[in-house]
Write a structure and sequence with these properties.
Strand content: 15-25%
Oligomer: single chain
Structural class: alpha/beta
Number of helices: 17
Bound molecules: beta-D-glucopyranose
Length: 490
């Protein structure tokens, strides 16, 4: 049964409160006109982002990834993959046979906060130390392993193995890395140690890895999408449309373009739709004034957005008997997993989402595993967990808030996905998706389908869960990089 799309029924014991709550939530509703404007702005930013000498800079990076082809089923051998983007760094050893990952050994290393915001060289020394630990444990220190590095941050790529950091996002902000090549910094850290044989052959974004993994699962795949802690997408573009491509592109016809849509709106083009909650959220964030689009809905922010709306409702005397619970005043106290949980309850689905809803755990859980971890709950669980006293009307209002932020998230994503779908030169296109919010939110998948169908009538598409693109995809891309090198030198 497809989950319902409409808002849960909204009846309260105090009927006058309904209207007041609706008024507070109204700015989160995107009218048809606003949706149309966002779409136009997005199309324009995409166009400028690909132009050679645009009159102004686009907020969409539209980065050429230099990945000209997808796996073709000939990829073989042993590869190392690194995955950095969240609080857990992963090292993965992959065995490929005929383009298929036949085994993968994974090890997680927690990246403590001081490393995430401390000097860049220390972060890269830590990554190199993790590689050493991983290989030493497996007695593989003397193996010459090609390495694919998933670095899930905005990069300027000048080649498949050159990735210059444009800005940090999410929970990272290490001085000394912006403007530097992440591959060079990693290689330097490896050389400083002098005891590793690995060679970084490719650097990639997690969306690219997801697209590659998706293409392995389904040949029609031409878009890679992440809806997790952060959000972003990449797609296969015709080379002749990448006007800004420097130099010749030989007989390459298509290339993967990393949109970096998290930064959509950083130049002010989305100011017209930002609410007071979005502004507050940005003001309190680690990287103020950047990653506008991502902050509107992604996993790192959706719970926080909900918290800010709840505080506003409490301030207006519409919840919690007019008292503002102190627990709610603490930034970050309402995690995004609560939104998924409330939504699940609103839909009448029994069971819980895992308490650990981090990006990293999502990479290792399929939908069945998620259900197995389920335990009975209700929307109340989040208030209980926070120790907040509440009445039954408070729960109904909470459902409306979660519905409103979810609905806006789905519409925003659908607008950009629809526009991207229309650019992709395919009659039928599969969108490979990964990320904790997509995996755990009970309605997001269905809402996305619903709105994309509405926004792209007649276009054939499907959304495919492509798990662990940043691990398996990195291995596959390292293999493609090897193939391209051999071809160049033969
Ligand atoms: C980064 C992207 C990444 C996305 C999903 C964003 O914050 O800028 O490069 O793809 O998060 O991890």
């Amino acid at each position: 049964m497809a989950p319902r799309i409409e808002a849960p029924e909204f009846r309260l014991t105090k009927t006058d409160v309904v209207k007041k709550v609706e008024d507070i939530l109204a700015p989160l509703k995107l009218s048809e006109e606003v949706q149309k404007r966002i779409r136009e702005v997005y199309d324009e930013e995409m166009r400028i982002g690909l132009a050679r000498n645009p009159s102004r800079k686009s907020c969409l990076q539209m980065e050429n990834t230099y990945l000209p082809e997808l796996p073709n089923g000939t990829e073989e051998g042993e590869y190392l993959a690194l995955d950095l983007g969240g609080t857990n760094f992963r090292v993965i050893l992959l065995q490929l046979e005929k383009g298929r990952v036949v085994s993968d050994e994974v090890q997680h290393y927690f990246v403590p906060e001081p490393l995430r915001v401390g000097p860049g060289s220390e972060l890269f020394d830590f990554l190199a130390a993790c590689i050493y630990d991983f290989l030493e444990t497996r007695s593989k220190l003397d193996h010459k392993l090609p390495l694919g590095f998933t670095f899930s941050f905005p990069m300027t790529q000048q080649d498949l193995n050159v990735g210059i950091l444009v800005s940090w996002t999410k929970s990272f902000n290490c001085p000394g890395v912006v403007g530097e090549d992440a591959v060079k910094m990693l290689n330097e850290a490896i050389q400083r140690r002098g005891d590793l044989e690995v060679e970084v052959v490719a650097v990639l974004n997690d969306t690219t890895g997801t697209l590659v993994q998706g293409a392995f699962l389904d040949r029609k795949c031409a878009i890679g999408l992440i809806i997790g802690t952060g959000s972003n997408a990449c797609y296969i573009e015709r080379v002749d449309r990448v006007e800004k491509w420097e130099g010749t592109h030989g007989d390459i016809k298509e290339v993967v373009v990393d949109i970096e849509w998290g930064a959509f709106g950083d130049n002010g083009v989305l100011d017209f739709m930002k609410t007071e909650y979005d502004q507050m959220l940005d003001k309190n964030s680690l990287l103020v004034g950047s990653f506008t689009f991502e902050k509107l809905f992604s996993g790192k922010y959706l719970g926080e957005l909900t918290r800010l709306v709840l505080v506003k409702l409490a301030e207006e005397g519409l919840m919690f008997g007019g008292k503002i619970p102190s627990q709610l005043l603490r930034p970050g106290s309402f995690p995004t997993r609560f939104v998924s949980l409330v939504e699940q309850f609103s839909m009448g689905i029994e069971g819980d989402i895992p308490t650990d809803q981090s990006e990293e755990s999502a990479k290792h859980l399929d939908q069945d595993a998620v259900l197995k971890l389920a335990r009975p709950v209700s929307s109340e669980s989040c208030f209980h967990e926070l120790g907040i006293e509440h009445g039954s009307d408070d729960l109904k209002i909470l459902q409306q808030v979660c519905f409103a932020v979810t609905e806006r998230a789905a519409i925003l994503l659908a607008i950009c996905l629809s526009a991207t779908l229309m650019r992709v030169d395919r009659e039928e296109c599969t969108i490979a998706v990964d990320g904790s919010l997509y995996k755990y939110h009970p309605r997001l998948h269905h809402l996305l389908e619903h709105y994309i169908i509405k926004m792209t009538p007649g276009k054939k598409f499907s959304l495919l869960l492509a798990e662990d693109g940043s691990g398996k995809g990195a291995g596959l891309i390292a293999a493609i990089a090897n193939r391209l090198r051999t071809r160049k030198h033969s």
